[in-house]
Amino acid sequence: MHASEGHEGIILVADDNEANRELLSALLSTEGYQVVCATDGQQALKHVDSGSIDLVLLDVVMPRPTGFEVCLAIKSKPETRLIPIVLLTSLNSDSDRITGIMCGADDFLNKPVNKHELMARVQSLLRLKQFTDELDNAETVLSSLALSIEAKDPYTEGHCDRLSKYSVLLAEKLGLPEDLRVALRRGGLVHDIGKLAVPERILLKPGPLTPEERRIMEQHTIAGERICAPLRSFRNVLPIIRHHHEKWDGSGYPDGLKGEQIPLTARILQITDIYDALTTDRPYRKALSREKAFAIMREEVKRGWWDWSILDEFEAVSHGCEPMLSDKVR
Length: 330
Known about the structure:
- By secondary structure, this protein is α/β, with parallel strands linked by helices.
- The chain is built from 15 helices and 5 strands.
- The protein is 54% helix and 7% strand.
- It has a 5-stranded parallel beta sheet, with helices on both faces.
- The model is unreliable at 1-6 and 325-330 (pLDDT under 50).
């Protein structure tokens, strides 16, 4: 049972002192929380890896490994880093608190623990975890919806996942910060989510689109931005969704942006999107070789469509990533 249900939640108490464990367990159980105990760092990590822990009360001075080391290990893993951790300590020096902050601790409690302070902090952190869990669930739903669009066309199988990987590789090559790399990973997955608003007769039409059908299709970038806008964690993803069909010369859509008016992240995604389309089987042609794909894209750069510097960087990255870049259904 999780923290979203009243005062209930699963709390891990990790302390090598039996009396401390019993005291904390009694206090928390009285308030309706389910308590799991660990006597050392290794046991604590095993419980966290089980995937059922909502919050950790962690003694700093513990054997195998220390509380600081356990905290750092939990916060270093994507699947557990959002679990709130309260460090319990009798150490009062500034350096110890700084160490705890550097390890990712969410809060501190001094021993002996005050019952009312303990409950206030536990309730506050569990509310915060509920919000982050709901946010994570919303992102999962969006990604699932995006993949459902991809699944309608057998020729696009794996497309979103490849774009996500290609874009992050290129972002790393360009030295982009972590928040933009995360945005590109997400953008690769959901960039076409606005196609949910496009009728299937248009989306899956085998032949050329009429001018009216093309106008409807081009609205998918705006629809996608609107779908994802409520998620604040997607603020860096929205420009990717809206602008990945712009062109360097201003002839793209939906806003006709030119050159560096097009967000860098959108330019990164569009280069990888075009590459993937050229090197994947389509109903009207077989997949092109890597060399042929880049030759075509260079011709399109000459027409003023794409950012030549981004293309150069992606071609350089692709040389060292042949296994991943060629891992496609042919």
